[in-house]
Amino acid sequence: MTNIPPPAEELRVLDWELGRLEARRAQLLRRRAWLLDVLRAADPARPPTAPPPTPAGPPVPGGSGPSVQNVLLALGGVLLTIAAIAFTVVSWGHLGIGGRGAVLGAVTLAALCAPVALLRRSLRSTAEAVAGLGLALTVLDTYAVRHLALSAVDTLSYAAGASAVLATLWAVYGRLLGELRLPVPIAVVTAQLPLILWAGAAQAGEHTMTAALLVTAAFDAVLALTAAVTSVRVTAAVAGCALGLWGAASAGRLSVRVVDPTAAAQAGVLLLFAALIALVVAWRAKGAEISVGAAGAGGLLVVAASGGVLRTVLPAAWTVPAHLACGVALLAAVRAVPSAAVRRGLAGASAVVQGLAVLWALPVAAVALLAPLGRATRAWSATPADARDALLTPLPLPHAALAPLVLAAVAAALLTTAGLLVTPSAGPAATTPDGPVPPATGGPSTPSVGGDRPAAGARRAAWFGAGVLGWAAALALPAALRLPYAVGVSAHVLVVAVLLGVAVRAASRAVALTASILALATSLSVAFLALATEAATLAVLGVLTALFLAAAGREAVRGGAPVGAGAVAAARPGTATPPACAAVAYATAFVCAAGAALGLRVEHIGLAALTVPALAALTAARLGRHPLAAPVEIAAAASGAVAVALTSGHAPTLALALGLAGLIAAGTALRPDRRPVAYAAGALFVLASWVRLASWEVVTPEAYTLPVTVPALLLGLLHRRRVPDTSSWTAYGPGLATTLLPSLAAAWGDPYWQRPLLLGGAALALTLAGARHRLRAPLVLGGVVLALDALHELAPYIVQVAGALPRWLPPALAGLLLLAVGATYEQRLRDARRFRNALHRMN
């Protein structure tokens, strides 16, 4: 017979057994650790044994052994260091010379020797803590020696010597005890001080102090490149970067402040020394990112050194061009560097220099492009003295003639770079802005960095950048050189022609669009620039119209596609849109300028300008389904809107202009794919009639609305005959509302009886017709208008009756009405539903 204990008793027994097993496991683990220490002491070359498995039971509360041990050791080392400092500073005077030396020497020697025994027992953390105490004691030893025997020595001189001795001793100590991680990095940090302190002690000048910084940085660079221990490499790298930046900044400050070539050369030597350090690091570093960054920094320092010397030799205005020349020369030297990462870094440094030079010169081009817009308020005022005077704004640089030179130089450098960025002869074909070209079959070439695809992308970027910078240089050149006004305007028009030629001939859509956009911006600037004189305005607008029209036509027939019904763009959809729209805009401006030159009134100029949208509409009809047709029509609509706006000051002329615009729209609507334009044509015709009636001082609204209602009703009737399912609201609603609603508003303010009577009769006829033919729109609109018209006619009498009745009667009648409605609510609800259903059954 088996006795089953109660659950509580069984749980107590299980907990006791588990505790006994855990205690036995802990005992076995301690025995295992002792055996491993014995075997490791007997055979140091024995490989470490894997750690024991993690216990499967619940975690033991508290922190892990090593972490607690490290915290305790660190706290102990700190407390011992504080005690040693207090002893040295406070209690030093209570001992004699022998006692002082004996105490400090013994304690220091013991602290430095103790880690040897501790490491033999694999107590590494304890050894690190004791070694840290020993290193701190060596500093106190130097302090004690300074106050004991060398008090006459200068403080900075002694600190320089002491730091050098300590750095050497700590480095040797760390190498002897290789398992310690602390002494050698601390020695590296301490080694940063001797040369700097020595220069301060010698009261050296800025050049010597900068040289000390750079020499120390060079030592750190060598250590970071050659050290085998990671902590030493990281410490040396951080220290070297800090001191190198400090030294380079100091040398750059010296180079900027001096004006004498000799002093500039001295500062340049320091900058070149810093550049040499950076380039050596770039050459020997293992990481590509480090090599690229160090090479870029070295390249910038080389440019700063050479440019600083040239700055003191050349006039002050040539400072930026001189640095740019150094940057371009650096780019030329890149080709001779075999390392790909160093090449990228040097090329990046040259790009930075060229970018800064471009930023210095671009404001001149920006003023040359945007300043002519101010001519809009001073049209045909007087002939400017030169191209700079025509801008009405001073250029932002005192020596503006150098800005186009800088922009052109950078553009040439980019073109050279694009030519050097060729792939190997066995690779794919290179790409230029005008399309692919065959790969080179001979001659030297620079291998692409990072593969053919990045090289192709960089090549395209160089082509685009060179083109944009060349455009900016050409734009700024006339004003910068103070060329005659006519020459400056002609030069800008020539730039537009060249850009349009590039857009037409380019095989790439991106290049074509870029060239077209630049041409548009330049044409807008030169169009405003030509507003100075009448002859220049007419000539420039005429030439711009012809140029953009020719470019649009060339794009329209590109690839041999015929222009006509059903034609489709062959190669690059969308590239002809900017020239076509610009041609329409400049044609409109030319007609307006010609009308103003002939002395025409503004409204007559608007009528003349309508010839442009008419011709554009004819051109769009000729294009057929060509993608260019829609942009041309949109531009024609905008041109027509401008022409109509010019006639708004004279009502009869405005009515004529609206009618002509409606005629153009109606002609466009004759095309099968442009039927919706008929609505716009109808709206224009209606507006034309309304403006004409307003000019005749007609105030009857029916004269304005009936010409719209009658055609609308006829169109609705024809549409319902073709599509019988069409709703009456769609067919007749807009036409009826166009007359009924304005007439109702006029009838409510009309003191006479004729208009309300006629409106009521027409509304009654519409209501009956809607009920007869089961049409919802005439029934609802006619009934509502009839009810409101009747209410308007009965309103005076209702007011009179309400005034004669007692004050209590209206509330009583309202209450009776509510009671009646409430009593017959169900019946009224059924009547409303039947009425709603009857309306829904109507068309």
Describe this structure in words.
With about 850 residues, this protein is mainly α. About 75% of the residues lie in helices and about 0% in strands. It has a two-stranded antiparallel sheet. Strand 1 (about 430) and strand 2 form a beta hairpin. Helix 9 (about 230-255) packs antiparallel against helix 10. The protein starts with 6 loop residues before the first helix and ends with a helix. About 35% of the residues are buried. Residues about 55-75, about 420-450 and about 560-570 have low confidence and may be disordered.
Keywords:
843 residues, mainly alpha, two-stranded antiparallel sheet, 31 helices, flat
Strand content: under 5%
Q: What is the alpha-carbon Rg in Å? A: 47 Å
Total number of helices: 31
User: Spatial order of the strands in the main sheet?
Assistant: 1-2
Sequence stretches where pLDDT stays below 50 over 5 or more residues: 54-74, 422-451, 559-571
End-to-end C-alpha gap = 97 Å
Categorize the overall geometry.
Answer: flat
Question: How would you summarize what this structure contains?
Answer:
It contains 31 helices and 2 strands.
Secondary-structure map with pairings?
Blueprint: H1 7-42, H2 65-89, H3 97-120, H4 124-148, H5 155-176, H6 183-190, H7 194-201, H8 206-226, H9 230-257, H10 261-284, H11 288-313, H12 319-333, H13 340-370, H14 402-420, E1 430-432, E2 435-437, H15 452-481, H16 485-505, H17 509-529, H18 534-556, H19 577-597, H20 602-609, H21 611-623, H22 629-646, H23 651-669, H24 677-695, H25 702-722, H26 728-731, H27 733-748, H28 754-773, H29 776-804, H30 809-823, H31 825-841
Antiparallel strand pairs: 1-2
